[in-house]
Specification:
- There is one protein chain.
- The protein has helices at about 50-70, 120-130, and strands spanning about 10-15, 25-30, 40-45, 80-90, 140-150, 165-175.
- It is an alpha+beta fold and about 180 residues long.
- It has a four-stranded mixed β-sheet with strand order 1-6-4-5.
- Helix 2 (about 120-130) links the parallel strand 4 (about 80-90) and strand 5.
- Helix 1 crosses helix 2.
- The mean pLDDT is about 85.
- It comes from Nonomuraea cypriaca.
- One of its GO terms (molecular function) is magnesium ion binding.
- It holds the Pfam family RusA.
Length: about 180
């Protein structure tokens, strides 16, 4: 039996619009005010998505509550397996731009969510939100059981939510014993 066939160490649902983390915009840094304002030659990197901060707060709060409900007082600081399924929005009623020409289309069809935000950037913001709440460092995640991005109420995805958010599951992998030759 593998670790992911057991019950998760922690499971929670975070509601809110998932915010992608990773894309940055440059903002010039100035010194002084008014006519004395001078460009310093430096550029500050600013998160391009305004959704990141509220999303990370929603994830941290849901994780904190789940940790308390499960009776976990210590942060995970070993090998971790994670699963994250993001519900990003309701399915559009119109045909997507990428739909193959000549292929029949109906608004009753379900398709995978192949639009923004990037799945990898959603994972990054969610991992960072869980650092210091669930685990000591997101570098401890050694494997993902599943990651997915889905539309609300997708009948093919059991973890699809009725509104934007994410279902997160975490497994702690016990340290492997050393085998001497």
């Amino acid at each position: 039996m593998t670790i992911v066939e057991t019950a998760p160490w922690l499971e929670f649902v975070a509601y809110g619009e998932p915010g992608p983390q990773g894309s940055k915009n440059g903002r010039p840094v100035y010194k002084g005010r008014g006519k004395a304002r001078v460009f310093t030659g430096k550029v500050a990197q600013v998160e391009s998505s305004a959704k990141v901060k509220p999303w990370r707060a929603a994830v941290a709060e849901a994780a904190r509550q789940a940790m308390a409900d499960a009776g976990h007082a210590e942060l995970l600081d070993g090998q971790i397996v994670a699963q994250m399924v993001f519900t990003v929005r309701t399915k559009p009623k119109s045909r997507p731009d990428w739909w193959p020409a000549g292929l029949a289309w109906s608004r009753h069809l379900w398709w995978l969510c192949a639009s923004t935000p990037d799945l990898s950037k959603l994972i990054r913001s969610t991992e960072d939100a869980m650092t210091g709440v669930v685990w000591a460092d997101d570098a401890r995640v050694v494997r993902y059981r599943e990651t997915a991005k889905t539309y609300a109420l997708d009948p093919r995805e059991p973890d699809s939510l009725p509104e934007p958010g994410a279902v997160v599951r975490v497994w702690a992998i016990p340290a492997l014993e050393r085998v001497d030759d």
